[in-house]
Amino acid sequence: MAYEGHLYLLHDQLGIQLQIKDYCQGQKAALISSISEEEEKFLEEELKKKKQGPYFIGLVYRYNTGNWQWYDIGNVPEKQYWKPGEEHNTRKGLCAGIQNECLTPLKCWVVMECFKPGRGICKQKPVAKWMT
Question: How many whole angstroms separate alpha carbon 75 and alpha carbon 64?
């Protein structure tokens, strides 16, 4: 899927978060992070078409700092789109994902266990040679 100058892949094969991250890197992409409000809306609409979920994003709970942080850049998200109550589920080994059957727009992030199989969202910039 294409949106706002990026390509997205909803990776439906089950894997733990680290496997999904590695898969994305193998595709010259990254597990999605730093999600804007418009991008979140786009992804929520795309995920509604899926029968299974949720889908890992690149957000992990850092037990040592007590914060949810993007795994690749290490900072706390400026905007967060948690389903009510989910962000308070904090312990080691937790990651975040976007729920596929979300009923409230911009409130679709859920807690996922990093080491339990799930699906994921890869994001990449378009390859220049494909654009000419």
Answer: 14
